[in-house]
Amino acid sequence: MTTRFRCSACGNRTRFDVVSARRTRAFHHFSVGGELTVEDEEVLDETIEAVTCRWCGASGESIEDLAAGASVDGLDPV
After folding, report:
1. Cα(2)–Cα(24) distance, integer angstroms
2. Phi and psi of 3, rounded to 5°?
3. Can you give 24-58 as a three-state secondary structure string?
4. pLDDT (tens digit, 0 to 9) for every residue of the chain, 78 residues total?
5. Which residues, including other chains, have CB under 8 Å from residue 25's CB and lie 6 or more apart?
6. Is position 78 within any domain?
7. 48: domain range?
8. CB 25 within 8 A of CB 41
9. Is residue 12 domain-resident?
């Protein structure tokens, strides 16, 4: 996921609970003993269903999508 978020209620840009649905393709490698290692995982589709601020609990319209690497209020991205 490359989406960055900002909470307009408290200013948080670093801590969010994100609920998403993903469709992936991955190589599953089982050892002789049955241990699974997942390799070469590729995300085919991802839908973000909900985002909640960890600091203040705000969600919905209070959460803004930021372009990856964008600055906020003239500050460098964290």
Report:
1. 16
2. -70, 135
3. EEEEEEECCCCCEEEEEEEEEEEEEEEEEECCCCC
4. 568 999 999 999 999 999 999 999 999 999 999 999 999 999 999 999 999 999 999 999 999 998 755 555 545 444
5. 41, 42, 44
6. no
7. 4-66
8. yes
9. yes
Q: 19 CB contacts (<8 Å, ≥6 apart)?
A: 48, 49, 50, 51
In a domain, 48, yes or no: yes
For 60, the 3-state DSSP assignment is helix
Number of domains in the chain: 1
Q: Which phi and psi (to 5°) does residue 66 adopt?
A: -110, 145
User: For the whole model, what pTM was predicted?
Assistant: 0.69
Asked whether residue 29 is domain-assigned, the answer is yes
